[in-house]
Predict the structure.
Amino acid sequence: MIDAAARPARAHDLQIAGLVPLSSVDWPGRLVATVFCQGCPWDCGYCHNPGLRDCDAPGVVEWAEVEALLARRSGLLDGVVFTGGEATRQDALAPAMRRVRELGFAVGLHTGGAYPRRLAELLPLVDWVGLDIKALPEDYDGVVGSAVGGARAWDSLELLIGAGVDHEVRLTVHPGSPQAATAVEVAWRLRAAGVRAFALQDARTEGTSPEFRAEARAWDVAAWRARLAALTHEIGAIGFPSFVAR
Ligand code: SF4
């Protein structure tokens, strides 16, 4: 009998927390199916998928269901986006991506860049990456709860830009956060690193923890709207070929 821990990971090993059969928002300009991968090593206060963080939780969707969906939607879907949680946490992601390509679909990836070495192996398999850069490297501990997270995420950014893969880099901000205070500097550093498409995202409260929603009730919404408008204006002047505030 083959020891499961010793054999190479297969697409069927992917811990899948959910499958959205049709999305027009997860990969701008493409119609995709979205695969939610279970588990994430980080702990962002504004996480709107806290149920996906547990790395030990088993998957609830079989890989065979993904392939069956793709067989039914051939010619209707452009591709598959793998998201999370943190999709790059799993060894099974690479074989799953290969399988999607074999079936004739494009591959998109959402990641926070927590595993740069694995991302380097995945980049030849992806057509587009949505990379969350969560803060300046030195602020990551306070944002994701990992002191090494900043180095990993910014290393991932360098790998992504170096590989020339189509991308959108996202920064999510909310009142009182370090990344709101430094958003313009983050954006300048991203542009200097070669980022071509940037999105400034206003953190949403739906699906977040009770603690985050309690914090949000104390926000001065009018002041935050004005701050976001000012950030949008300043970042818009940096000159990204593509910039959106959402
Ligand atoms: S990286 Fe994403 S999935 Fe992980 S805790 Fe942060 S927001 Fe949630």
